[in-house]
Design goal:
The protein has 12 helices and 11 strands. It has helices at residues 14-20, 33-46, 57-60, 66-73, 94-112, 128-136, 151-161, 166-171, 215-222, 226-242, 275-292, 298-308, and strands at 4-11, 52-55, 77-80, 118-119, 141-142, 189-193, 196-200, 248-251, 294-296, 312-317, 320-321. It has a 6-stranded mixed sheet.
Length: 331
């Protein structure tokens, strides 16, 4: 039997990328969801896959998005991706966080009829306050962590490619995390917070070296060498199997968009590649993924992990993992 793994997509609309890049006109940006969602759904259907789609509350609250979100929920799991995709959310007080999570839940449930049971913070952000809110609200899992040493490098790359300056850069000083995030475990585990326990399903990175393997990163590599990108994917998946890791792989809407579809997102990695070329690369990635693993939604993956009864437990106190000193000894 193939080991269980999971697939997710962060359904960030054009405005969220423009906002993160410092574009002052982000609120008036047109939506690309009607264009990209059918491409996403078609690709997943061709591979017979169900995924978890993390939805932003602001997009769920727009009536114009109701049809595409319903189409997603008819086949896939929906998750909570915060209301405004604000990447400073981990700094917020608990009351503000709870309001944000609740508003997003309501918007998603109104739009799709489905209530989220999983959460992913924007920009891989997480705090003890967030975990407490999720526990109180009955969430099954969190999927916010990216165990990688490359956060500062990714942040520097992003700053060079965007319009961010001065205080805007300072406000995003923790975007994509810190070097210390690379010491977090790759294998799923449980956070212990205030006597409660919440499953964490990290976005998987390459075992050992802890570099990203999510699809946007691979598409960026493919700009230099498609063959190298395919070998990288195959190597990453084999390394995960050897390490006993059922990977949780991440997609983004720009993975299905070319330069003609969203020319204002030219700062996003891989946006110089045409959509048809991306489609072939994504198809190859998903084919390799399903060859190695039984790929499910993150929620289904989480329940399978709970049934295994072998999850490591880590305390999260005062904004930092209390067991951080022992991270280096684990995958």
């Amino acid at each position: 039997m193939k080991p269980v793994a999971s697939l997710s997509l962060d359904l960030d609309d054009r405005w969220s990328y423009l906002r993160t890049a410092g574009d002052t006109g982000w609120a008036d940006a047109s939506s690309y969801l009607p264009l990209v969602v059918p491409r996403i759904l078609d690709t997943l259907a061709q591979h017979g896959l169900r995924a978890t789609v993390f939805v932003v509350g602001r997009d769920a609250a727009r009536d114009s998005n109701r049809d595409v979100l319903t189409a997603i929920a008819d086949r896939h799991e929906v998750g909570n991706h915060s209301f405004d995709h604000d990447q400073t959310i981990h700094r917020w007080p608990e009351e503000k966080l709870e309001d944000d999570v609740a508003r997003t839940e309501d918007a998603i449930e109104t739009a799709t009829g489905a209530k989220p049971e999983g959460f992913r913070g924007p920009g891989y952000t997480l705090s003890a306050a967030t975990l407490r809110v999720l526990l109180r609200r009955g969430y099954v899992y969190d999927a916010s962590t990216l165990p990688s040493y490359l956060g500062p490098l990714a942040r520097a790359f992003y700053f060079r490619a965007t319009k961010l300056e001065g205080s805007e850069r300072d406000a995003r000083g923790e975007l994509f995390g810190s070097f210390a995030d690379g010491r977090r475990p790759l294998k799923p585990y449980s956070w212990l917070v205030d006597g409660g326990e919440l499953l964490e399903v990290p976005v998987t990175t390459f075992p050992g070296v802890k570099v990203p393997i999510h699809v946007s990163y691979v598409l960026h590599l493919a700009r230099y060498s498609p063959r190298l990108a395919r070998l990288y994917v195959e190597g990453a998946l084999r390394a995960c199997r050897a390490a006993g890791i059922g990977p949780s792989v991440l997609l983004h809407p720009p993975d299905f968009l070319g330069p003609d579809d969203a020319p204002d997102l030219d700062f996003f990695p891989g946006m110089g590649t045409h959509a048809a070329v991306k489609r072939d690369l994504v198809d190859a990635y998903l084919t390799a993924f399903t060859d190695h693993y039984d790929v499910r939604t993150v929620g289904e993956h989480a329940r399978e992990l709970r049934r295994s009864g072998t999850l490591r437990r880590i305390r999260f106190e005062n904004g930092e993992p209390a067991a951080s000193r022992s991270y280096g000894a684990h995958a």
